[in-house]
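User: Hey, quick favor. My workstation is busy. Could you predict this chain's structure for me?
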Amino acid sequence: MMKKAILFSLVLMLHSVAQADELLMEKSSRSVSETIDRVEAAAKDQGFVIVARVDHAAAAAKVGLTLRPTALLIFGNPKVGTLLMRCDQRVGIDLPLKALAWQDKDGQVWLGATNPAALKSRYELDAACDAPVASAQKVIKELMDYGAKGS
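Assistant: No problem, here it is.
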């Protein structure tokens, strides 16, 4: 019985390690607003449509609450999203793509986005979907690099 428990634990650990990190994160050297501005500009340059921009801190202030600077950008491109949804239409719950910039309690600004590679494990996508997932991941990483670090 003990051997089975150890084997089961080992399998669970290996499965966890094999799964992609759900969230890609990068430190930004800019303010939350500047970081999201840069992601938005780069997304537009790459043919993405900006669906919405949400200033969570401003929304909190409107109801008398405080929140450190936090902003969300929602953007999409049917050329990318459709390929992912053709793999499994449930992926549509994670689309359009999103980028979140926030300032932590120490004043550091971060930029985060869902890792498209996580969609592969979340929806158990087969190998035929590797190319669209890799393409989406490449685009997200480029946008994040530009938003957080690019010159």
